[in-house]
Amino acid sequence: MLLLVVTVLSGLGFGRAVPEVAPVTLEQLVATSDAIVIGEVGSVADVKPWLARWTAPDRLDVGAWPIAEILVTRTLKGDPSVAKRHCVAFPTWTCDTSSAKVGERALFFLTDVDPKSAEGEALSASVEDVFGSNDVAWIAHSGRGKLLLSEVDGRTYAECWVEDVVVPKELPRIPGGGYAFIARLELAPFVARIEALRAVCVEIEVLRAPGIEPWSLAVRADRTATWVSGGARPRWRELRLDATTQVDALRVLRRESSLSTGFVFGGPDAKSGERRVRVFGESEPFELVLRDLDKASSVSREHAGELRTLLEVWSALRSALDDPTCADHRARDAQVLAGLPTARR
Predict the structure, then answer these.
(1) What mean pLDDT is predicted for residues 1-12?
(2) How far apart are CA 10 and CA 111, in angstroms?
(3) Model pTM score
(4) Can you point out the beta strands (E) in the chain?
(5) Is the pLDDT of residue 36 over 80?
(6) CATH code 3.30.420 for 199-339
(7) pLDDT digits (tens, 9 = 90+) for 309-336
(8) CA-to-CA distance for 168 and 5, rounded, in angstroms?
């Protein structure tokens, strides 16, 4: 995801604007990356998008796109069974630093190329022709999501542009490359911090629909949470839930601790924005999906507990958000909850 700010150089007497990479926190980078892996660049191949009629005026016209194949040695986020990942390895705008060289070892933050987008449609088939797999991703945050690894005095460090990716000050580091905006972060505690950020207990999400902007809220065991809005102007916010909000949500989850599989309510269409509740615990994570509340309200007694869980967790966590752009279904949810069988004890 590209986050841009515009700086007007009025102080220098110029009237034009220069794009820059906006800083993000480590929490934001972790939350918005689809995969976080440690690996080595095994190969880089030029891939020419097969869709010849496709043009992207906001991207460089390079004819062929260098695509890197990453040989994964450790997965911090994403499917751990994926041994190879592929990413675009060239800059797509002025301040993008995306690149890759065979043999580089790095910590990669990756965001999937949308297969339904023009570039995703163009790349998927040709990447599959070359690598045998049609998955392809961007290096997150305009290339800042590739942190090269190096060894210094027997310790492994990850090279980070700390003005663009704001990391906690307490993380151990040494200077990097002679530039003030680059630091080498000791890998072990850095990875530990990333894994702590991934220790999410529950996540709620609403998908895009007519008149509905997508957003998600991921809540961790320490009551911290990350809110991400995926609207026309993506936004992030770090929250700390009050004890009552978290207790309300976790009380419901403990009551329904026997749930171990997902369930989809309400038929194939999402008329008011598909809603999802994902629960992570000691067992396999499960997901509850709500597409049409009116149809779901007549759910059988067998699945009333799952629907009650979904609506109560949603309402408890939605109460932590005061942003008017976030879809709020709580009034209608309360009506449906009142008609459901009494929750199990």
Answers:
(1) 32
(2) 35
(3) 0.57
(4) 4-8, 17-21, 24-25, 35-47, 65-77, 84-88, 105-112, 137-139, 146-152, 155-161, 165-166, 173-176, 179-186, 200-206, 215-220, 224-229, 235-240, 263-265, 275-279, 286-290
(5) yes
(6) no
(7) 888 888 888 888 888 778 788 888 888 8
(8) 22
